[in-house]
Amino acid sequence: MILDWLALEVRASALDHDSAPSAVALFDVLPDRCAVKVGSVMMTRAGVGFVRSVVANGHPVFLDLKWHDIPNTVKGAVAAAVDLGVEMVTVHALGGEAMITAAVEAAGGKVAVVAVTVLTSHDPAGFGAVVGREIGDVELEVARLAAMTIKAGAAGVVCSPAEIATVRPVVGSGRIVLPGIRRSGEDAGDQARVAGPEAAVAAGATHLVLGRPITFDADPRAAYEGYLEAIG
Hints:
This protein is an alpha/beta fold. It has a single domain, classed as Alpha-Beta Barrel (TIM Barrel), CATH 3.20.20. It is built from 10 helices and 8 strands. It has helices at 20-27, 40-56, 71-84, 97-107, 124-131, 138-151, 164-171, 197-203, 212-215, 220-231; strands spanning 12-13, 36-39, 61-67, 88-92, 112-116, 156-158, 175-178, 207-210. Strands 1-8-7-6-5-4-3-2 form an 8-stranded parallel sheet. β2, α2 (40-56) and β3 (61-67) form a beta-alpha-beta unit. The chain is globular and about 45 Å long.
């Protein structure tokens, strides 16, 4: 779910649930019209109708499906997202410049397209295994992919908190969307590169994606408000 990016465009939360009813129940304890990220698990289980209902109820929706396919297929997917009325979508930067350009063309300025650079679950060894070469510094890879993404016309990138300082000059005034946000003492889970919300915002993040720290908390409303207070 995306945690209220409406005011300062820095807050977001994710629907880390396995059914539509459990996700809807979460809405009952969070602020009205809070922005929401719908990922692949929720989309696969609940489908397009669920997304339409969330949009209809006034929630800005970040459709985080991380498309990585041939340009024509991704173009069609983004066109479908435009029809759904979502606010932002993701593609994988590793899909290449032509694919990102096709996504931006399909968006037509109606939906923000942001590209995932290097997943926050990757460390240098893990990403090196993916690309088939030794990676000494993930940060340099993120910067390289970010530059390609902006050249293709995307609205911004998704990266980890560790790369904000490197990415900001590349992205300029564009969006920097951050998963991997954890407060002190919270379990990082499968995230390899994390940071606190205060540091992320201070470094220049525009959108923070907050999932499990809120959705898995015994008191989601208190967790949500705790993050708002931390960000200020």
